[in-house]
Structure formats: structure tokens, C-alpha cells
Amino acid sequence: MRDVMRWKNAALLALAVLVVGCSSNSKKELPPADLPDFTEEVQLQKEWSRSVGEGQGETFNMLVPAVDGESIYAADVEGLVMALDRMTGKVIWKQDLEVPVSGAVGAGYGLVLLGTLKGEVIALDTSNGEEKWRARVTSEVLAAPAINGDVVLVQTQDDRLIALDADTGSQRWIYESTPAVLTLRGTGSPVLTNRLAIAGLSSGKVIALDAQRGLPVWEQRVAIPQGRSELDRVVDIDGGLLLSGGTLYVVSYQGRVAALELESGRVLWQREASSSVGVAQGFGNVYVSLASGAVEGIDERSASALWNNDALARRQLSAPEVFSSYVAFGDLEGYLHLISQVDGRFVGRVRVDSDGLRARPLVVGGWLYAFGNGGKLVALTIR
């Protein structure tokens, strides 16, 4: 227990360092940059808005909603789960789990999946919200579980990957990995295909396992810990993995952004970067929200920067998401920003939730869904 508490305290310390930027030796912390003025080119229209309980809470959760079919599923930190019609916002069902939710939401194959601070994975029926099963895992679950119809894949805060039977919740296999001495509080959501179970670890490695048996298929290091102090050596992969076709995109904190070949793990290209929130991909480019508050567009063919927008320094940006011809992301004051994929210029902005917007926007079928820290879930389209 003493080791667990030491590890948790270390994780919280690293998080505090991340929030202030970890980018300056100055004794005086610089404030977030002011919002820049720009000529609005794109207007965002609010289609509907709903309140989802207490929202993200105060423990830096990333409770990203999930869309499955015509429904969107969202959960708050207190365990309230809601299913809504994604086009109208009409509530289909509500379920109060009465446990602190920290990993949400996974959805597919008739299940809504959530992870808790108490080290549980809970599966609900997508049609009515009734609990199908509940499984105990090794530690808190801070990212959404993945499902392929046969197994549910969970990544725990202690860097273990656990496969559960999708029908019963019974454990199929477990892969154990030793976490780094000092880590950020969080994990990325794993990626699950019919053949592979893939996750980014706090050591800066990406591991791919056989989805049926949990045996290693390949391993690739994305970041190498460097520096004298443990803070300097933090290289977590917390932003999740992005799978597009046969390419896997990944970014680490104080490390690199890279594209890997899915089947072999071979590095297709890589570039120095530092991010704990993840990447987006579109138009042959990769977009990354950097820890400094800059957003960068990277040409996949040359791995060189197309543009770098640093006007939002220290505003704690969310992960980016491609929305039509633009890149969308949120900030600590709850603004959703749109910038051009071509040159990174600002084209639109709307405030979603005054408590902040740290969860990655979700884009489905020309609609964007943003879930604010205070619990406001908003559906937006381009006017």
C-alpha cells in the first residue's frame, strides 16, 4: 500500500508540473495567453445542449463521450450515465452507477463501457442502460475501454492491459508492465482490432499484443527518457493512439510524435514533440496539441512542420480533432477553437463551458460534440 500511495503522489506531482507547462525555469509562472483577435470565417451553430451531472470533476478526468449508431453516451465523474439521441439531444435513458467514474466512455456491440476509480469496469446495455456485468481489475481505470465484440480491452493506471470476456466480464488474459517511477495521471485509451490489442505505456513504448491470448507481437519505443531528474524523464503516452487505415499515430510527453506501421510496429516517420493529449489526422497531415499550448500541423510525407500556431500558449489545450476542413480543440476557459488545416490560421471560435474544455472533441457525420468540464454536452454544426 505504501508503494501505491508513493506512486499516486508522484503521479499527481507530475500532473501539477504539466499544468504549469514544464517549459520555463522562471520563478514566476506566466499566465495563459489572451485570446487573439481574428476575422471570423466559419460560424458554429449550436444544435442542442444538455447537462450531464457534474461533468469532468476536479481530478483531471478525460471523460470523452462515445457515439454508437444514432446514440451518444456520456458520463460524469459521479457515475451518472446518459444515452441521448445524437441528432436531437433527447434523453433515451439515464443510469446512476453511484461510483466515481474515471474512464469513459467505450461503446459498441450492444455495450456501454466505463472504468472507475475503484478499479472496476462496468458494462451497460446500450438499449436501456441496465447493468450487464461488473469486473474488478488491478487499479483505477482512467481511459475508455475498447471492444471488438469478443473481448473488452482495459488499460489500468499501473500500466497493465487486461482482456475481459465481452459477454461475462470474466478475465481472459493480463499483460503486466512496470510503470515508470514518475508518471502523469492518466492513460490513453487502447486500440483493439480483431487481431491486435495495442496500448501506449508510461515508459514511452507502444506495445501490440495478440488480442486472443495476450502474447506480445511487437514493441516500439517512441520516446527515450532523458535528463537528470525524474521530472525530466517523464515520457508518458497519455493521449491515446489514433488508428487510420494501416497506420498508427502516437505522441508522447517530452518525446516524439510518430507514425507506426500497424502490423509490424515499424516507424514510418517521427518528429520531436511533447504532448499528453493526443493527435488528429487528415488531408495527409497530422495535427498535435503541444504541451506548450501551440498546435502544429505536420506533413506526413516529409515529417516536417507545415505550420505552428502558438497564439494560445499555456491555455491547456485539449486533443485536436479534424472537423470538415478545420482542426478543432478546446482550452482551459471552455472555448472551442477552429483553425485551418491548410495554414493553421484561426477561422472560428465558440464558448462551450466556462469551467473549461479539456476532453477531446468528438466528430461524427458532420457534427461535433464537445463535453465541457462542468458537464455541458453541446452538439455543433458548421452554419
Automatic annotation (TrEMBL):
One of its GO terms (biological process) is protein insertion into membrane. GO terms for cellular component: cell outer membrane. Its main location: membrane. InterPro entries: BamB (IPR017687), PQQ_b-propeller_rpt (IPR018391), PQQ_rpt_dom (IPR002372), Quinoprotein_ADH-like_sf (IPR011047), WD40/YVTN_repeat-like_dom_sf (IPR015943). SUPFAM superfamilies: Quinoprotein alcohol dehydrogenase-like. Part of the Bam complex. This is Outer membrane protein assembly factor BamB. It comes from Pseudomonas taeanensis MS-3. The lineage of its organism: Bacteria, Pseudomonadati, Pseudomonadota, Gammaproteobacteria, Pseudomonadales. The gene is bamB.
